[in-house]
Design goal:
There is one protein chain. The protein is of the alpha+beta class and about 500 residues long. It folds into 4 domains: about 160 residues, Methyltransferase, Cobalt-precorrin-4 Transmethylase, Domain 2 (2-Layer Sandwich), CATH 3.30.950; about 70 residues, no CATH class; about 170 residues, 2-Layer Sandwich (Heat Shock Protein 90), CATH 3.30.565.60; about 80 residues, Arc Repressor Mutant, subunit A (Orthogonal Bundle). β9 and β10 form a beta hairpin. The longest helix has 18 residues.
Length: about 500
């Protein structure tokens, strides 16, 4: 196949020529010889073909006017979607209003072999069946029918929705080779994976295709997947639907959000822009003198490793189906908050010990191969360890308003920590010791807080509070308090 021209009118012409090569009409392609199609029929076709495309594993379905059904001969059509109305409303507006979820379908009016042809390009259903006027339709052979009349197909469709990850869906389509390479930072791909960059376009695109970053389309051109765009976009704003997934970094003047000092949007893909993102965050952070465990030096307010782990966790574990929001890093005078859309797949209190579960496995895998993250579930352990080493308050993990948030706190003297701070630190310390196969003791907790031995009663009181809150339990209830060991309550 040859690459399509960059002229926009050449894409639908090439598409028609490719679809004409199909031996028969399929569930995801409908050819119409006639001129008249009622708006209601078009709406039902949109639903049926969108759902059929999902069942067939296609990115798009097509309804084409001006071709003979059996022979695919071009006979032309007088149908003009631009001039068609339903009542007093334009056809496209009327269709969009009655479809759920809304589809970014598109009409093309072109000349093929000197005759008028109209192509309706219909995106596949992605998260639930496409409805028209509240009813879901499906194609069975060449017939349009209600989905509820075919429960087996309905079950299969829902299974596909569950099994089709965000990364495999398309971020951009109808591109030629030059356009793909102009949108993706492909040199970063080869640099991060320590691969030699091929010399020719075909070889570069072939390598990107092997990792699922790009793919061929029905017209012989190229598509960019969400995986390719979200990781290696030169500018995420170039991809409709992904612009809000760019990472925002906001620095505030004090402990609240009233006065913003600086705001930055990292518009590069997550892999291509990760180093510059972390560098920008570090440039905004003040530095502190940290004293503890024989450590006394000028260091950043927050450990570098903790920042990297929490930022990359926010990127990997976000729920991309949540529209209108993306990962955000907020810097306050006393804390850093890292937020991503979507509830976590595991309970926040089990972040430290639970094996990794990612809703975006392909994204996580490629970031691991690029050396940006690990998939061994060790990220939160490192964060907790680093905060203990730097004598910082324990991190906080919470789920506000349908999102997941990790909070790192600036240095605070032990005397300034409240009961919740101390109990949370005690619990995470017990979790960290447990995964290291070494239960928490009064001595280990004193070391974590920097408490002198003669103040062991303070550590004991914190442990009692953690037990009372149902977070910690004795390793052996029969053992004397002097040598007592403790576990997280779930152990």
């Amino acid at each position: 196949m040859t690459y399509p021209s960059t002229k926009p009118e050449d894409y639908p012409i090439g598409l028609v020529q490719e679809l004409r090569k199909l031996p028969n009409e399929t569930e995801w392609v409908e050819f119409k010889q006639g001129d008249a199609t009622s708006p209601d029929d078009i709406g039902e076709y949109l639903s049926a073909l969108s759902n059929a495309a999902a069942l067939a594993g296609k990115a798009y379905a097509y309804l084409i006017w001006g071709l003979v059904d059996g022979t695919h001969e071009v006979v032309g059509t007088r149908f003009t979607p631009q001039g068609t109305k339903k009542g007093n409303e334009d056809l496209e507006n009327w269709l969009v209003r009655l479809l759920s979820p809304r589809l970014h379908f598109r009409f093309y009016e072109v000349q093929v072999d000197g005759r008028a042809v109209v192509v309706l390009e219909i995106p596949r259903a992605t998260t639930k069946p496409t409805q028209f006027q509240g009813t879901e339709y499906i194609r069975v052979g060449s017939y349009r029918q209600k989905l509820k009349e075919h429960p087996q197909l309905e079950r299969e469709l829902w299974r596909i929705f569950d099994d089709t990850p965000f990364e495999r869906l398309l971020a951009a389509s109808h591109l030629d080779a030059a356009q793909v390479l102009s949108l993706l930072d492909h040199p970063s791909y080869f640099d991060l994976l320590s691969l030699p960059q091929p010399e020719g376009r075909e070889q570069i695109l072939s390598a990107l295709q092997e990792d699922g970053l790009v793919g061929r389309n029905d017209a012989g051109g190229w598509d960019i997947t969400n995986l390719g765009a979200v990781l290696f976009a030169k500018n995420l704003e170039s991809f409709r639907g992904l612009a809000r997934k760019a990472v925002r970094v906001i620095q505030y003047q004090s402990t609240g959000r009233l006065v913003t000092i600086r705001e930055h949007v990292e518009r590069k893909g997550y892999a291509a822009g990760f180093t510059s993102l972390i560098s920008f965050i570090h440039a905004l952070l003040p530095r502190n003198e940290v004293i503890g465990q024989a450590l006394r030096k000028d260091v950043p307010m927050y450990p570098d490793l903790a920042i990297r782990e929490l930022v990359v966790n926010a990127l990997i574990h976000q729920d991309f189906s949540v529209t209108g929001s993306g990962p955000m890093v907020e810097l306050f005078s006393d804390r850093m908050e890292i937020t991503n859309p979507g509830f976590p797949l595991v309970k926040t209190e089990r972040f430290l010990d639970t094996p990794p579960r990612s809703r975006n496995e392909a994204l996580a895998s490629l970031l691991r191969r690029a050396g940006i993250c690990e998939e061994r579930g060790s990220g939160v352990d490192k964060v907790v360890f680093q905060t203990e080493l730097y004598q910082l308050p324990a991190p906080l993990f919470e789920t506000p308003e349908g999102s997941t948030r990790a909070v790192l706190f600036a240095h605070r003297a032990f005397q300034a920590m409240d009961r919740a701070d101390r109990v949370r630190a005690c619990y995470l310390h017990a979790c960290l010791r447990h995964v290291e196969r070494n239960p928490m003791t009064n001595a280990s907790l004193r070391e974590r807080f920097g408490i002198e031995e003669h103040n062991a009663a303070i550590a004991s009181r914190i442990i009692r509070d953690a037990i009372a809150d149902g977070l910690v339990k004795p390793y052996d209830p029969e053992q004397g308090k002097k040598y007592a060991k403790y576990l997280p309550v779930w152990a």
